[in-house]
Amino acid sequence: MQVMLLGMPGAGKGTQAERITREFGIPHISTGDMFRKAIANQTPLGMEVKQYLDSGRLVPDDLTIRIVRERLAEADAANGFLLDGFPRTLAQAEALDQMLRDIGKPLDVVLYIHVPQEVLLSRLTGRRVCRACGATYHVVFQPPQREGVCDHCGGELYQRSDDTEEAVRTRLEQYAQTAPLVEYYRERGLLRQVDGEQPIETVWSEVRRILLSIGG
Ligand code: AP5
How far apart, in Å, do the first and last CA atoms of the chain sit? Predict the structure, then answer.
């Protein structure tokens, strides 16, 4: 099963991705996670993209397309995958079409998690992430049992460098480049819209139902 998650920053893509990969066993391919890992490991890629992530701007298309192409060629993607945060521009969407044709793995569904912009700022500035396993929390909407400590692995929770108010505002502006993709995938009959303003577990029930209905 080839699935894509689409939605504004903070819509809940990563939160639902955790549940999808756990239940359906497909690898989670998140360009944001790949870039953050490269930055943490101080690789050449990490050094190149750090300025973009810290400020909330999009990484250039050529670089982003290259890392996804390489990732899709890895063995675990042969039986399906979940794309999260890619594509984000029309050029990326067109490049993805070509990549999927090359590997003979068309998309089954694009899950568009829709949330009104007003709620996103508080979601993002309140987000905390586990440094060890990457699990996502929110200080109000999804707090850990012990403050600052991951429920799953006991790792330390931290705030992403692009979850400051200033970077979040830039990220929301940059979404103008991604918004046309909703129509792009609707026209291709792949889009399924989910109301992301509902509680996390309600969103998950809908996502799960859609994926089961397409044969997940
Ligand atoms: P990326 O990591 O992809 O970030 P994003 O798209 O901005 O998405 P987020 O991870 O911020 O949000 P999310 O939708 O996953 O929300 P989450 O589930 O965590 O990209 C980061 C950067 O990398 C970009 O700015 C860019 O620089 C670069 N980049 C990445 N991909 C790129 C590309 N393709 N091209 C160019 N550059 C690229 O939820 C948010 C919070 O809300 C959490 O605290 C969560 O607990 C809470 N929450 C979730 N769901 C609910 C709910 N239903 N109710 C209440 N709270 C909820």
Answer: 6
